């Protein structure tokens, strides 16, 4: 099995040399274990946090040990009757080509007629995150005007479409022309943030939605949060899903100077971690799965080929090189 490790805890933007590819012989299967050839690996922004060597809501990655992450693969050898050879499974032993783990850590794939990698994106953790943030945290209502930052990524691209279905004005913030074009193609008003300061971004958001927003779905932080705070309606709800603009900061920058807008607009701001809501995953699948299957909900993916490209795929998340879900085909 070939697998990646990190050799240090990065400060600031991780360097490519942080990641090392190793090879090892896997031991014979123990009773209850299965061997899985991974067909798709997920790289996700939260992995940056796990590289820092501190415990947050999840344990940090250990140095020089196989990295972990969501993956999909096919059972190629099995000593667990529940997962015979040929079963397609999802598990957390990513960043490697062949995984060996107890059957208890394998999950069979749901059976919608979608490509299997959708269970790492729109019908997996990122999709569940978008649905949870909008419905369970921001308590989105019919007709709400909704603003989403990171709007063309894995989470954001489902968030804008779920919001759009509620009938209000939906505005998405994203970084590049092709992302803005994709948003417009889904009926979302697209606003670029690159090259703008908070005042200019505020102005662009006000132009896109003069009445202001009932919901802000936060993926980015920084000037996106500052501008969003300026455009809230009274009683607005902010679901704090992520703050990717900060993940590579060596020293934390100051928060937005206009936080008092929370007070002025009587707004509520609440962070959440999707794993705490995982008992609702079947409900999410029941609602969103058929819409993905029928094509009513669109999803995009960006694929890097080859296990050795996994770190590059991960680092590209911070350059905005992905449209939709970033995946690796090992
Ligand atoms: P994305 O697919 O959205 O990929 C990351 C995107 O973030 C990039 O494509 C880029 O888009 C944007 N970005 C990167 N750096 C910056 C920056 N400095 N400023 C502004 N935008 C930047 O990733 P995900 O959909 O997987 O995750 C989106 C967010 O959701 C992240 O913050 C992540 O941590 C969070 N998350 C939270 C979860 C939870 O349980 N709370 C679960 C899953 C994800 P662009 O070109 O537009 O700049």
Short description:
It is built from nine helices and 15 strands. By secondary structure, the protein is of the alpha/beta class.
Architecture blueprint of SSEs:
Blueprint: E1 2-6, E2 19-23, E3 33-42, H1 46-50, E4 71-78, E5 88-91, E6 98-102, E7 107-108, H2 125-137, E8 146-148, H3 154-164, E9 170-174, H4 177-185, E10 189-192, H5 198-208, E11 213-218, H6 222-229, E12 232-240, H7 261-264, E13 268-271, H8 281-293, E14 301-305, H9 310-316, E15 325-329
Parallel strand pairs: 8-9, 8-11, 9-10, 11-12, 12-13, 14-15
Antiparallel strand pairs: 1-2, 3-4, 3-6, 3-15, 4-5, 5-7
This protein binds NADPH dihydro-nicotinamide-adenine-dinucleotide phosphate (NDP).
Characterise the protein shown here:
It is a single chain. With 330 residues, the chain is of the alpha/beta class. It folds into two domains: 2-121 and 300-329, Medium-chain alcohol dehydrogenases, catalytic domain (Quinone Oxidoreductase, Chain A, domain 1); 125-275, Rossmann fold (3-Layer(aba) Sandwich). It is 25% helix and 24% strand. The protein contains nine helices and 15 strands. The strands form three sheets. Strands 3, 4, 5, 6, 7, 14 and 15 form a seven-stranded mixed β-sheet that branches. A six-stranded parallel β-sheet has the order 10-9-8-11-12-13, with helices on both faces. Helix 4 (177-185) links the parallel strand 9 (170-174) and strand 10 (189-192). The mean pLDDT is 98. Bound molecules: NADPH dihydro-nicotinamide-adenine-dinucleotide phosphate. The site of NADPH dihydro-nicotinamide-adenine-dinucleotide phosphate has 30 residues, from helix 2 and helix 3. Residues 12-328 form the Enoyl reductase (ER) domain. GO terms for molecular function: oxidoreductase activity, acting on the CH-CH group of donors, NAD or NADP as acceptor. Pfam families: ADH_N_2, ADH_zinc_N.
């Amino acid at each position: 099995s070939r697998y990646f490790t990190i050799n240090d805890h990065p400060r600031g933007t991780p360097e490519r040399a942080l990641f090392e590819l190793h090879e090892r012989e896997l031991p014979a299967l123990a009773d209850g274990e299965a061997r899985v050839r991974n067909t798709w690996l997920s790289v996700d922004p939260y992995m940056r946090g796990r590289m820092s060597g501190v415990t947050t809501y999840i344990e940090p990655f250990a140095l020089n040990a196989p990295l972990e992450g969501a993956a999909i693969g096919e059972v190629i050898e099995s000593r667990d009757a529940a997962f015979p050879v040929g079963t397609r499974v999802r598990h957390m032993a990513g960043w490697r080509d062949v995984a060996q783990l107890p059957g208890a850590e394998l999950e069979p794939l749901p059976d919608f007629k979608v490509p299997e990698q959708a269970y790492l994106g729109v019908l997996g953790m990122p999709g569940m995150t978008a649905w949870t943030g909008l419905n369970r945290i921001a308590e989105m209502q019919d007709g709400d005007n909704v603003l989403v930052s990171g709007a063309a990524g894995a989470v954001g691209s489902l968030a804008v479409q779920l919001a759009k279905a509620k009938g209000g004005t939906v505005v998405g913030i994203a970084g590049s022309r092709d992302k803005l074009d994709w948003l417009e193609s889904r009926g979302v008003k697209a606003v670029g943030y690159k090259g703008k300061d908070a005042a200019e971004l505020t102005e662009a958001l006000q132009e896109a939605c003069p009445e202001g927003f009932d919901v802000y779905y936060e993926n980015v932080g920084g000037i996106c949060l500052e501008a969003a705070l300026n455009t809230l309606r009274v009683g607005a709800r902010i679901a704090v899903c992520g703050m990717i603009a900060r993940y590579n900061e060596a020293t934390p920058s100051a928060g937005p100077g206009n936080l008092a807008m929370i007070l002025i607009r009587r707004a509520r701001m609440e962070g959440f971690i999707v794993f705490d809501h995982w008992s609702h995953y079947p409900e999410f699948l029941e609602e969103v799965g058929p819409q993905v299957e029928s094509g009513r909900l669109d999803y995009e993916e960006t694929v890097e080929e080859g296990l050795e490209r996994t770190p590059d795929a991960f680092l590209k998340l911070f350059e905005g090189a992905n449209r939709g879900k970033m995946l690796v085909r090992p």
